[in-house]
Amino acid sequence: MELLALYLSAKLATVATLILIGIAAPLAYLLTNFTWPGKSFVEALVNLPIALPPTVIGFYLLFLLGPKGFVGTAWENLFGGTLLFTFTGIVVASIFYSLPFAIQPIKASFEKIDPRLKESAYVLGLSPVATFFRVIIPNSVNGIAAAAILVFLHTMGAFGVVLMVGGSIAGETRVASIAIYEAVESMQYEKAWALSLAFIPIGYGFLLLVNRLTRK
Hints:
By secondary structure, the chain is an all-alpha fold. The protein has one domain: MetI-like fold. It has helices spanning 2-33, 39-51, 54-64, 70-79, 87-111, 115-123, 128-136, 141-156, 160-166, 176-185, 189-215. The protein is globular, with a radius of gyration of 19 Å. The termini are far apart.
């Protein structure tokens, strides 16, 4: 059961990270290189999860992803099922929750690129989209990799948001953080110790990698 919870945490973190990097990179490019109406509003909205407690985010996502919420209703109309208390639901919740942790490192990486590279690309006739893929991305690989690692670790340790949206369904939404909480609550401290110790080498190893990437 403990291994299953760890597997679900790793699976959730992997899926959410892959989706988030695909969303965060273009959004960071728009926030870094262009001025448009409502930009500051969007930037504040993207960073809002940093300022709110996870349970507050989870509470609002519970309604948003529920059968009466905008996202939940659209999902049910398209796929005929609910998002709440499913693995897909906690993936969606994790994307909302971890978005700023993907945006900030990528945005910082984009800001470090020499503006002359972009100017040269425009002079050579590249469109903004072509410049993004042929100039910005190749020169930001380390920053994007660091963002992916941070998002993975942040999602691996998610608790409040996942519990509110997904509950604790074994094999579906009962990730390692929830399993640790339930083990402590039922005074099964050996299980809690084993699961908690598994996070330490994972987190430490990935953070060492982030430090190396950001130095480069």
